[in-house]
Design brief:
single chain, 443 residues, alpha/beta, TIM Barrel, Arc Repressor Mutant, subunit A, 2 domains, nine-stranded mixed β-sheet, three-stranded antiparallel β-sheet, globular, Elp3/MiaA/NifB-like_rSAM, metal ion binding
Amino acid sequence: MKRQYSETTKKQKNPPSGAHLGGKDIMEKTLGVYIHIPFCAGKCAYCDFYSLAGHEKLMPSYQHAVLHHIKEYAPQLDGYLTDTVYFGGGTPSYYGADRLISIFNALKKYGHVLLDAEVTAEVNPDSITKADLVRMRRAGFNRISVGVQSANDALLKSLGRRHNFAAAEEAVKNARDAGFSNVSIDLIFGLPSQSRDEWADTLNRAAALKPEHISCYGLKIEEGSQLYIYKDSPFMPDDDAQADMYLYAVETLSRFGFKQYEISNFARRGYESRHNMKYWFGDEYLGFGAAAHSYIGGVRYNYIADLEKYSENVLSGQNILDLREEISDFERASEYLMLRLRTTRGISEKEYVDIYPCSMDKTINLLRFYESHGWAVFSDDRWSFTPQGFLLSNRLIGEILETQTKQRTEMTKPWEKPEEAVQRSQMTLFDRKPQEVQMFRGI
């Protein structure tokens, strides 16, 4: 039974050579692909994302479903060149190198993957071996993201992590020995009872591993996670302590040669995450797997966050969509501001006005006010936040969106209030990596 796609998707099927979509020649369009692997060895104390422990028996059927989904969607990939592939979770390494390679091979068969594509897999030190890494590198994976989180073994144990820092060091060494020249490390600050000195030690020891990329995420305790019952505990670092740790990370990593390019991400020159940049710059991407998201042709799709139902429905041709949302011009304009201000590249008034014809005079005045407080900076005709501004980004971006809303009412559809469009934009989650944590709330 063939699955029924939306009318928008049908229209994109087998587009003619040279067809135009979104203002570009379709043969020039690039695409990111995200594969969600929801399996893990055990749920970490801070995790509220869609991941499942103890469901290994469902791995074969899930693999079959994802491969079937990719093959079925192949006609939609005609004319697109895949330049980034990202396996996130969950814990992709726990799923097994052979299964990951099989999925990647299917993408290469159907998805026109470029030879220089960035191909990333998230791995945990306790579920990846040197032999796995060798096989993955030979298959075409060229970037590994290691979930280190902390150099403090006691903290790791309290979080339910199944490795110590020595295992993380070994995982990075094994990745190098396997031929990976692009290694990223994930770290979390604001952990229970974590002091700034402990955070400083983690940063120093992580930098000593000489990765090309480091992500530093402030812990945000979400309802549904095991840590939620300790949300108001005195053992949890408060907002001021988290802010101090964040600014210390920016300063320390800069000394080690890592340039901040997004709120939570730091890289050596040329090693910024190309895949995650697609989210922040509003580029198109396709997701496969339970709970995966897609954005293509001006439409955002979310697949159902139910592993068994996803697998059953893919194989039986039934609906797998949890959400289908056409993004209006107003929402795209709001997301341009909201997402690009997450990056150090920031926003350009000329760029914005060229794409979304609307004055930014009041917003520029607001940015000048932020500049006077040390929260924003204007350089090379672009506005961006400073590290201090990033700490307040939730509040500042909210003020910017509210200000810009008042200048875009002429573009509002009759049935859509601009305030509602802004609220939807603010509620949308774009970060796919890491799955475990989000940037901490603005202070």
